[in-house]
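Q: I have 299 residues here and want to know how they pack in 3D. Can you give me a structure?
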Amino acid sequence: MNGEGRLRELCSRDYLHRSFDLSDRLAVVARNPRRGEIVERISTAVRIAGPQFHDWLHHKNEVDGCDIYLSMNPLKAEVHTRSKQDVQVIKHLCVDLSCEGVKSFAATQHSRIVPPPNYVLHPSPHKFQAMWRVEEITHAHGEALLRALARHFDGDPDAADLARTLRLPGFANKECKEDFCVTMNDYTGRIYHARDFKLRTDPVESNLPRWSPSVRHTLVPREQSQAQRDVAYAKGALARGFSTEEVIRDIAEFRVGENVRAEDYARDTVAEAQAELRAQRSAEGTRATLGDNADRELY
C-alpha cells in the first residue's frame, strides 16, 4: 500500500478509462495458444472500451479460447502495424517480474530508486508485471528505462519493448493448466516523469540532456489537458459525420466513474467542440471572401 492509501482491483474498462485518451489508437491481440492463430485489430480506446468490442473480446476469450492482449502505448494515426517505430507517445513503462515474481514485486513497492508503480498486473500464478504511468519521456529514454527496470528488478530483458502488448484484466489466461483470471490492482493515480526514475541507464543514453524546466519543450511536446484532448476527439468525430448524440454517448461512457458527471461533461465537451468548428468555418469563409475580393481587384 502506498502513501495515497489506494488499492482497488481494475477491470479492463477501468484500465482503459484511467490510462488512455478516447482517440488513442491501440492494438488488441487475440491469440489462440492451442491453434497458434492470432487476430490483431487496431482501434481507438473509446471503441475498445465500448460494449460491442468488449462482447467480441469476451467471445474470443470464453468461446474461442484466445488470450487477450492490449498494447501498453498508443500507436501513430497512420500506421497499421505494431513496432517500436509505430508508437506515438509513451504513456506506460512496465517491468516483467517473471523471475522470483513475489520478491521482485515487493522490491518495487519499497524502492528508493523508482517511484511506486501505478498498477500491478497479475497475468498468471506467481508472475507480476509492475506498470508506471508516465509522460514527457522520449522514445530513446523510454527504451533505456525499460532495460534498466528489467536489470534492476531481475525482470525479463526480452520484454523491454515500448510496443509490447500486455494481458487485459478480467480475461482468462488460457495458457495455464486451468483458466487463470488476469487481475490488475490500482495503487496510485500519479503520473511520473523521467526525473522520478533514478536508474542507471545504458551508456548510449548518457548524453541525453537532463530534465530542466527551461528546456522541457525541446525534449517532447507539451501535452494538452484531458479536457482539451476530449474536445479534439469530439471535433474529429463530428467532422467525420458522427451524430452529436453518438459523440456524447461515447464520451460519457468513457468518462463514467470519474470525478465528473459523465453525461453533463460529455454534453459540455461536444458543445465546445461544435462552437470551435463553427468558428473555424466562419474564419475559413471570411478568408475565402477576402480572397475573392482580392482576385476581383486584380482585374
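Q: Anything worth noting?
A: Residues 41 and 232 are 23 Å apart (CA to CA). The chain has two domains: 8-19+78-202, 226-298.
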